[in-house]
Amino acid sequence: MKQYIIKGGTPLRGEVVIGGAKNAALGIIVAAIMANEPVKIENVPDVDDVRVLLDAIEGIGAIVERLDRHTVSINGALINDVSVDEEAIRKIRGSYYLVGALLGKYKKALVALPGGCQIGSRPIDQHIKGFEQLGAEVTIHHGKIDARAERLVGRHIYLDCPSVGATINIMMAACMAEGKTIIENPAKEPHIVDVANFLNSMGANIKGAGTDAIRIRGVASLHGSEYSIIPDQIEAGTYMLAVAATKGDVYIRNVIPKHLEAITAKLTEIGARVEEFDDCVHVSADRRLSYANVKTMPYPGFPTDMQPQMTTLLALSEGTSIVTETIFETRFKYVGELRRMGANITVEGNASFITGVEGFTGASVSAPDLRAGAALVTAGLAAEGYTYVDQIHYIERGYENFAEKICGLGGHMELIESEDERALRKFKMKVS
User: Fold this and answer.
1) Closest CA to 104 of 218, 188, 201
2) For 67, what's the count of Cα atoms within 13 Å in the CB-facing half-sphere?
3) d(CA 301, CA 320)
4) What is the pTM of this model?
5) Which of 117, 161, 280, 407 is catalytic?
6) Is 90 exceeded by the pLDDT of residue 238?
């Protein structure tokens, strides 16, 4: 079993380069199979979820070529199966995008229900509603989504909530439906816009992504393309908050500052310094920060994927803060782990009440999900002594070279086998 070992108490300093957005990559990789020509995708994050998805599309006949660590070529011309039911694919949430892509291209799909992090109920009713309104018959049996249609016809679809997954899924199916589709109340996250832009680069006709209504005029086929994925706003935000928690000074490069505005606003509110450049943000803090109230909201509000990291930072800040989670109902599972490190946090319903403490102490903790795992790493970097983070397979789903990047900023963090006493002694000698 792998784990991270962290020696805390060192401010992060220097510069770090952010990779491609995982959430955009999952939608874009799936959308690529809708073309019958090669599609070259750049700035692909080298993380576990992406590797699983590439293996899955290769398993149904897509030609996948890794041109380098962050560039992949995909050709969907030879897909010979619309059934995707590998054990690995059940572990990632983005697997449901295969339904929209296969349904749009082949008018049928049979895909295992997705898994991912256990952070609360993430129903697919809005996905099904959209597919059915386009003319598909959708059933769920034996743990699979079965969608079939004689033909797909554009419709006016209103989403009851701005679901990211449903917006991308319906958008993919509709771009090869007959006629015009309008999606009202869609999600507006940057990766929605990125997937729409990618589909347009292959010949789709999608307008309005990122606004209150997406208008799609169906096309008969999609063609090859070259495309570069946007930077990962959540990876960038994670480093921004880790810098603030350790009282560091870091330039975070390859970012789109506009996508980080909600995070930047909260950091500035509690006393951190944030400078914005064209493709970089400079974050620094030289003292203990202040309190704030935070409520997660759909984009452009404060992202739910940054809630655990923000809670961790506020737990080290002065005063009393309240963090309210409005997206996922069980996203505070990590709080018990932070308490082991000295945090003073009480959870009541969908809110956490935080009384800041002057510092954490290292402890053995376990990551319950991807973003909570990143929050525990942040806590360990700020803590006195050694922190051991288990269940890091969650973290590796979304953060590339996490330990290496932290070390590049002067932090002390290493990935080791939990039973490897020799590696543990070597790490402690190196940082002592």
Assistant:
1) 218
2) 13
3) 22
4) 0.96
5) 117
6) yes
